[in-house]
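Hey team,

Filing this mostly as a record. A colleague (T.K.) asked me to run one chain through the structure pipeline before their review meeting, and I want the input and output archived in the tracker in case anyone asks later how it was produced. No errors, nothing strange. Just documentation.

Input sequence:
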Amino acid sequence: MTASPTVTGFQSIWADLRGTSFSQGWLDAKGTRTRYLTTGSPDKPPLLLLHGVGGHAEAYVRNLRSHGEHFWVWAIDMVGHGWTDKAPVDREIPQYVEHVLAVMDTLGIAKAHMSGESLGGWVASRIAADHPERVDRLVLNTAGGSQADPKVMERLKTLSLQAASDPAWEFIKARVEWLMADKSKAYDDLVATRQAIYAQPGMAEAMVHNMVLQDMETRLRNLILPEDYGRIQAETLVLWTSHDPTADVSEGRRIASMIPGAQFTVMDGCGHWPQFEDTPTFDRLHLNFLRGLPLDRPL
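Output structure:
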């Protein structure tokens, strides 16, 4: 008898979305045409997923199916990013906060769970500190905003501006690989998706405006200070990784120490996108926390 051939799953964004009930669309968030991916239903608790700088909603494609079982999930392209409007103005944290709150108001969401990665965590931290009535549970996933490391800032700015000014495959791939500890996870269709975004007319200019937070003077006036973290009332999980390219584990632990009652956990073998690199582990930690369950509980 001939053995059946081994079937290896094709790794792609679309493969992650097969079997997932979701929709893509645009909404008018108080004048900003905003692109989203959504799943779940309005009878479930709302959950906002916020990507990092230069990113887009596809950062969370692998998490939509599992989270849609429990939450009304909205992964948005933040202002100036993805296929959302890109006004020709510098974007500092108050502009991102205003946009996220406008999305919530447009959707009729008074209060939501909020999970942010990198820039998204920076924005979510500021919302939780300044608008505690809008945030239920909070996840800070390799979050930015707590420090200003000039080497990291310069590397991120250089890669991003190069990819947006010349969206050649090798430059986009280098930018995506920067996110991953395992570079093989920079799948071709993820690179192609970001290439399509970065090739949009006006994206090179938009990226310049998005990168102002990598300039030291601008960054310093936008940082989340210890007293800001101390004002966060939401139940918080700070999630870090063993190979994050922006800061080591000690920085994540420091952030958690400043937030009253925050939990802290580390995912091994991951870089800046743990939700994408090790989806089963991330989903278990994330869903358990958001549902008020022990982090180590099996899904």
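Quick notes for T.K.: Residues 112 and 150 are 34 Å apart (CA to CA). The radius of gyration is 18 Å.
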